[in-house]
Design goal:
Blueprint: H1 14-21, H2 24-27, H3 32-48, H4 54-72, H5 85-97, H6 110-146, E1 151-156, E2 159-165, H7 166-191, E3 193-194, H8 210-216, E4 221-222, H9 226-231, H10 235-261, E5 269-270, H11 289-312, H12 327-349, E6 352-353, H13 355-360, H14 368-377, H15 382-391, H16 401-407, H17 419-447
Parallel strand pairs: 3-4
Antiparallel strand pairs: 1-2, 5-6
Helix pairs in contact: 3-4, 3-6, 3-8, 4-5, 6-7, 6-12, 6-17, 7-10, 7-17, 10-11, 10-12, 11-12, 14-15
């Protein structure tokens, strides 16, 4: 296979070739579609500036569409000798079209090629992640609605604290996800810039039309400075992974809650058997392995963020091969986050709530802070009321847990969860996502016509 950089000199040392290719040829199998789309847009732009004729463009486009068809059938495989998806596709075009295939790389570099591939790949993946996040948020809200008046002991330091509800617990995780969505969309916007035409960091001597390629590919805007386009590799990936890490931290906290509250000693919740694994030795075991792996994989995504930041933090301007090491952590962070959102969704939807066990946690001292409030309302200074209740915990007595949680009616409390606020946010975000995805899909459909 001819290398795109091959100048006809001595073959590359086998050890260096293996080391520099790494697992790029495997990772790039996920970038075939993106590379085809970027190449079609680039070829159309080359036709506009008369590097290709209209007939040549159509032939190139058809050959690139053949790549998509072959890839869909599993017949377009990138091998180590190809190095990457860019080489594999250009060699395919040259095999099919002869000298015409050699024209496709005019006015671009593998640098802006991989940049645009990753931006397109990430954009489509972030659509999926946002959809999965909103689906989990909707499931949590439905769960909260169902259990608005289901009492649940509130805990701090893992000790009994104050009355709470299952609805309050579920709504808290929902609002965390919706805040994570703000960060995810900010990362999406940073990613939604077209770097094509920046070439090897310094643009092209030809009169290329960067806005045309950007519009053809459905990007929000052209990434203006050609040097920064290359400098931003890793920086944009880090922003995306950072948003994914925030999502994973939210999921990890939720997973830990479910693990703890499903323990026999608590038994507030119960996970169905189909979501749990067993033990090879102990026949009674019902292990929440999916939740445990969500928790562990949150650390993996954080590590991927640190890897990317560590890779780029001391690089000089312009392209450096170090950037290759930012691709794997980005792709793996995306895969982990998407899978984890799915695991948490089915866990919430199939979770069984054990109301009797929840009520057992409503021992008299759980109402201690409420009693302090009552004394304060009667005119007792707070600190005096606090100390009086502390000395008389054995005299608190029992109360109605449901009436107690319903009585907390200020904004965001157990008796006024404000679920409609989050429900509105989810609806609006889902509508915006649908519109954005349809607009992007329409651009791609038009490009491939």
């Amino acid at each position: 296979m001819a290398k795109l950089w091959d100048k006809g000199e001595r073959p590359l040392d086998a050890l260096i070739e293996k080391f520099t290719v790494g697992d790029d040829y495997l990772l790039d199998r996920a970038l075939v579609r993106a590379d085809v789309l970027g190449s079609v847009a680039h070829a159309k732009m080359l036709a506009k500036i008369a590097i290709l004729t209209e007939d040549e463009f159509e032939r190139v486009k058809q050959a690139l569409k053949e790549v998509l068809a072959l890839e869909k059938k599993g017949h377009f495989v990138i091998e180590p000798a190809d190095e990457d998806v860019h080489t594999r596709i250009e060699n395919h075009l040259t095999e099919r079209l002869g000298d015409l295939g050699k024209k496709i790389h005019t006015a671009r570099s593998r640098n802006d090629q991989v940049l645009v591939d990753l931006r397109l790949y990430t954009k489509e993946q972030l659509f999926d992640i946002e959809a999965a996040l909103l689906a989990l948020a909707a499931s949590l809200l439905a769960f909260a609605r169902k259990h608005t008046e289901t009492p649940m002991p509130g805990r701090t330091h893992m000790q009994i604290a104050m009355p709470s509800s299952v609805g309050l617990w579920a709504a808290a995780h929902t609002e965390a996800l919706l805040d994570d969505l703000v960060l995810l969309r900010a990362a999406f916007d940073l990613n939604d810039q077209c770097p094509l035409g920046s070439a090897a960091s310094y643009g092209s001597a030809l009169p290329i039309d960067r806005r045309l390629t950007s519009d053809l590919l459905g990007f929000a805007k052209v990434q203006n400075n050609v040097l920064y386009a290359n400098n931003s590799r890793g920086k944009v990936e880090a922003a995306v992974i950072s948003a994914l890490a925030e999502i994973m931290v939210t999921l990890s906290k939720m997973a830990t809650d479910l693990i703890i509250f499903s323990m026999p000693e608590f038994a507030y919740f119960s996970l169905p058997a189909e979501l749990c694994t067993g033990s090879s030795l102990m026949p009674q075991k019902k292990n929440p392995c999916g939740l445990e792996l969500v928790r562990a994989k949150s650390a993996t995504v954080i590590a991927h963020l640190n890897q990317v930041l560590g890779t780029i933090c001391a690089l000089p301007s312009g392209y450096n091969r170090d950037f290759q090491e930012t691709k794997r952590p980005l792709m793996q962070a995306i895969e982990i986050t998407l899978g984890s959102l799915g695991v948490m969704k089915i866990s919430i939807e199939r979770l069984e709530v054990k109301k009797d066990n929840l009520l057992k946690g409503f021992v008299p001292e759980i109402y201690a802070t409420d009693r302090v409030g009552e004394l304060v309302a009667d005119g007792v200074p707070f600190r005096d009321a606090y100390r009086e209740v502390a000395k008389n915990l054995d005299k608190l007595g029992h109360r109605d847990p449901v009436e107690n949680i319903k009585s907390k009616t200020h904004i965001g409390a157990s008796g006024n969860l404000g679920l409609e606020i989050s429900e509105k946010r989810v609806r609006e975000a889902a509508s915006e996502l649908t519109n954005a995805r349809q607009a992007f899909d329409a651009c791609i459909e038009q490009l491939l016509k």
